[in-house]
Amino acid sequence: MSNLNTPEDPRLTTPNPMDNGLYRTIPLACVILSFATVAMLWTELPDTIPLHFDVTGEPEAYASKWLLWILPLLNLGVFYLLAKAANPAWQKYSAPLVEVTEENAVRQQTITLQLLAQLRIIICLILAYLAYTSAQIGGGLGKGLSIPILLTLVSLMFSVVAIHAYRQIKAK
After folding, report:
1. Where does the sequence pass through the membrane (predicted)?
2. Exposure of 6 by Cβ count < 10 A (0-12 exposed, 13-18 middle, 19+ buried)?
């Protein structure tokens, strides 16, 4: 009889990379820096700041500066929710590209947890960059979003997903 989805499930003891090291420090630093950036520039921000940017990185829509707090709050939410998604009680992910068996369950679980940890870093970096840049532009200290930086981070996110999909298939 299989131990999968029982209290003896071997995936429950799989170490979570988000619990320590750079997988924890980098996203946490991004969250702190996004809050700190908005807080430090708050008094210099006009009541109306850029809210949306066109494809060249130039502002095209404006809103109240209070909306700037959405980015750090969203960053905190991503940090927290992806950490919760890796909670041992929830660590029974299915791998959509391969069938999870007792023989490959720990390998598949490890790959999935590494994917979540790396995505959390990239998403928190994107949100911290957006908070920083929006506050800089709103305070008159910047010109626009750097499209190359944003495209690099988004490309990195999709590359990480593709690499982990390949690793899951290979680790059948």
Report:
1. 21-42, 62-83, 115-132, 144-166
2. exposed
